[in-house]
Amino acid sequence: MSTLNTILDLSAYPIDDPDFRAECRNTLARTGALVLPSFMTPKAVEQVRQDGLEKQHLAYYTTNQHNVYLSESDPAFGEDHAHNQKVTSSKGCITDDVIGEDSPLRILYNAERFRDFMSYVLDEEQLYEFADPLSSITLHYADEGQELGWHFDNSSFATTLLIQKPVDGGVFEYVENMRDADRGEMNYEGVERVLKGEVKVKQLSMEPGALVLFRGRNAIHRVTPTEGDITRMLVVLAYNTQPNVALSETARMTFYGRLA
């Protein structure tokens, strides 16, 4: 049975240490992104990778056309307006109910020490799992040519673990402070320039085992198409700041192809 000590490199990342926690919190607050390389041990990464390869045939694959705001088109604007322009996102996904009870992902997700660390770094009072049976832990596959188009997140933060890196491509790109969602400032002009490739983007460099916390509500971001015959594999550890939150049935059908 795996324990947190065998899953994480706690000597490099002392998640109980107040100074280390404060450093992580400050970095995330200052830059909107926190990358902890080799956070998960090589043995745990390999166990998750092998499990992911064995279960890849169970993945639900989708290709969606959407705008960067992940909202409906607005007829008040033209088709070429930044609000209505469509980008493509395509991926495969296995859901929480397919992740084994003995998986390092399950042990990590449920560990009180890890969740307490995450709560502090994210400046949240407490974090909760999803109330539905599919959404808490998901493993995503991007085969050759698959990508995530430019978009803003609806949630205030995202937590991911890279499990397998492709031969090339699959690069996480972003532009911070592109809008102010709370004020309703969508910055259409800035988004238009991003879509035209006129804005210099930042990239997050990551290798398998890296933990990434990212605030994507106001930072526009994408993952470039995977290149080569090695599938990009990424875990999303999804938490809520309130209890008893479930992904809507419509969203579950869209992303997972089923409700349970």
Description:
The chain is α+β, with helices and mostly antiparallel strands and 260 residues long. It has one domain: Jelly Rolls (Sandwich), CATH 2.60.120.620. It contains 7 helices and 13 strands. It has a 7-stranded antiparallel β-sheet, sandwiched between helices. Helix 2 crosses helix 5. The protein is globular and about 55 Å long. The chain starts with a helix and ends with a helix. The model has no long low-confidence stretch (mean pLDDT 96).
Defining traits:
260 residues, alpha+beta, seven-stranded antiparallel sheet, four-stranded antiparallel sheet, 13 strands
* Beta-strand content estimate: 15-25%
The appropriate CATH architecture is Sandwich
Number of strands: 13
CATH class: Mainly Beta
Give the averaged pLDDT, no decimals. 96
Describe the sheet with the most strands: 7 strands, antiparallel
Element order: H for helix, E for strand: HHEHEEHHEEEEEHEEEEEH
Rg of Cα set:
18 Å
Structural domain count: 1
Oligomer: single chain
**Percent helix range:** 25-40%
| SS class | alpha+beta
Distance between the termini: 27 Å
Widest β-sheet, arrangement of strands: 1-10-6-13-4-3-2
Shape from CA axes? globular
Q: Output the CATH homologous superfamily.
A: q2cbj1_9rhob like domain
CATH topology: Jelly Rolls
Q: Note poorly predicted spans.
A: none
Count of alpha and pi helical runs: 7
